[in-house]
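[scheduler] slot 2 assigned
[scheduler] job type: sequence-to-structure, two independent chains
[scheduler] chain ordering preserved from manifest
[runner] begin chain α
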Amino acid sequence: MNVIPAQSISHDSSLSSSSLLLSGLLLFAVVVTVGVKSGDRQWMPRADLIWLSWGYAFAVAASFFALLSAYFFGKEARDYWGAKMPTPELFGIPLYRQGDAAEEPPMEGASVY
């Protein structure tokens, strides 16, 4: 049995989670809009001849599974990056949050200005 190591898939988990969350939310909005407005003659002509069938059911299932997979990809990314979160850098200079400044010793000869 071939097992993919977690290191090879975890780098893309946060990007996958974000894109799946966006697509799941947009699809959910479309499904809700079509479901609510399907009987409105002002929104859809000949609404009396239109009924929600298997295509609508697949769209509902797709939005559910997109949101579910976004959750699991986000969980994978959080588990992977939780212990290995790299220090953010800008042109080789490490950036720190405001609370981290008290923990870091001042650099010798560094000017505030």
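[runner] end chain α
[runner] begin chain β
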Amino acid sequence: MLKSRNTEKELSALSDVSGSLAKPVLSTPDTELAAGDRFRVDVFNGMVDCLIVKLRKRMSEYSAVHRLFGFLEEFESLTPED
């Protein structure tokens, strides 16, 4: 029972991601998924979507740090005359 509560919390955290890319799978009359398959597809898409959003945010933050401190990489290649 405890494991299902944690899963519900994780799923609610995934649904709170702003900038979401994936849309949940909707059952239409011509494509009907079993409940277990639909759950797997929706959860997997949600997790991948959350991962993409978080990685994009992290990449932009690292890019900002690199813009400020990227010049430090050049110090190793400088000679004493420079």
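[runner] end chain β
[qc] chain β: The radius of gyration is 22 Å.
[scheduler] slot 2 released
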